[in-house]
Amino acid sequence: MRHYEMYFVKQQIAAHYAGKEHLLYQLFLERKQAIQTDKKDLLDKQVAFITDPVAEEELNTYLVNELGGFRTYEYKNAGHRLSIKQSKSDASLFVRSEKMNVYASGGTEAETVFFEVIRKLTPSFFAIDFQSGRYGWLNPIKQQKLV
Hints:
Layout (H helix, E strand, L loop, with lengths): L1 E7 L2 H6 L4 H13 L3 H14 L5 H12 L5 E4 L2 E6 L4 E7 L4 E7 L2 H11 L5 E5 L4 E4 L10
Antiparallel strand pairs: 1-5, 1-6, 2-3, 3-4, 4-5, 6-7
Helix pairs in contact: 2-3
């Protein structure tokens, strides 16, 4: 099973870290692995500084509106679930104020549908799969070239 954490990174931070995503990944990884209370508190503050809370109710409503046309989509118990039988793909998405969690198994089609719908909102959602060490923007952010 794949598990992704998605954070809503502030626009100005996202623009600054375009092309330097590995630094954001390192911060989130250190925070996840932190055991010492003092270090964990500091990392929590850093993450809170660079991210904005996710508007849970609005995002849940948006997802229901966008995905309601899929016969194999359901929203219950504060979770969105999508199955695509042809590819044996299942994914569940849970929206929380700090982050979104996606759990997926089988093919990647169901999770891709979630990512495509969410990326329409803003380019600054940063997704991380800690298990595989994969990370990136749902919608690539263009680096500004200053001449």
